[in-house]
Amino acid sequence: MKEEIIIAGFGGQGVLSMGKILAYSGIMQGQEVTWMPSYGPEMRGGTANVTVILSDKKISSPILSKFDTAIILNQQSMDKFENSVKPGGLLIYDPNGITRHPHRKDIKVYTIDAVNISVELGESKAYNMVVMGAFLKLKPVVEYENVLKGLKKSIPERHHSLIPMNEKAIKAGMEKLVQI
């Protein structure tokens, strides 16, 4: 098993955190993992993306040009990464702020209205965990209990009280995914 993932959006949407949680989850599961973030100098509001590779074998390089899965959270990322999904791959996106929806017919496309779902939950800070839940529903590349361990590892201990809220958001994302 090898899963090559790009997560892309604006800084502040939790893109890098989502990648880090996936990476820690893979480590907890005994997988080989790479986590390679990329962001502009602006951080919040600038574009950010992270490449995560999860594998049961050694990973030769963390640098990729094609991905099994793209998780897209803004239009600039859609424009940049839609064509980087391998044929037969998966593209998950939040339609809020997207003006040009994906047009490819050789990939599976799903939406998750993470903005509205996180607002409904009363937890707008859990936006990225709603998206994570959608991804894990489609591609359970890490076991759920390892995701919880990954959350504990990536969230500072003083904020561990937020873990139940994040878990609730992950479950909501798993339930409210829509295929296009």
The strand order across the widest sheet is: 2-3-1-4-5-6-7
Proportion of beta-strand residues: 25-35%
Quaternary assembly:
single chain
Structural class: alpha/beta
- CATH homologous superfamily heading: Pyruvate-ferredoxin oxidoreductase, PFOR, domain III
Shape annotation: globular
Describe what this molecule looks like in 3D.
- With 180 residues, the protein is an alpha/beta fold.
- It has a single domain (2-179), classed as Pyruvate-ferredoxin Oxidoreductase, domain 3 (3-Layer(aba) Sandwich).
- 36% of the residues lie in helices and 26% in strands.
- Strands 2-3-1-4-5-6-7 form a seven-stranded mixed sheet, sandwiched between helices.
- α2 (75-81) links the parallel β4 (67-72) and β5.
- α1 (15-28) crosses α5, α3 crosses α4 (127-138) and α4 (127-138) packs across α6.
In short:
Helices cover 36% and strands 26% of the residues. With 180 residues, it is α/β, with parallel strands linked by helices. A hairpin with a 7-residue loop joins strand 2 (32-39) and strand 3.
Main traits of this protein?
6 helices; Pyruvate-ferredoxin Oxidoreductase, domain 3; globular; seven-stranded mixed beta sheet; 180 residues; single chain; alpha/beta
Secondary-structure map with pairings?
Layout: E1 2-10, H1 15-28, E2 32-39, E3 47-55, E4 67-72, H2 75-81, E5 85-93, E6 108-111, H3 114-120, H4 127-138, H5 144-154, H6 163-175, E7 178-179
Parallel strand pairs: 1-4, 4-5, 5-6
Antiparallel strand pairs: 1-3, 2-3, 6-7
Helix pairs in contact: 1-5, 3-4, 4-6
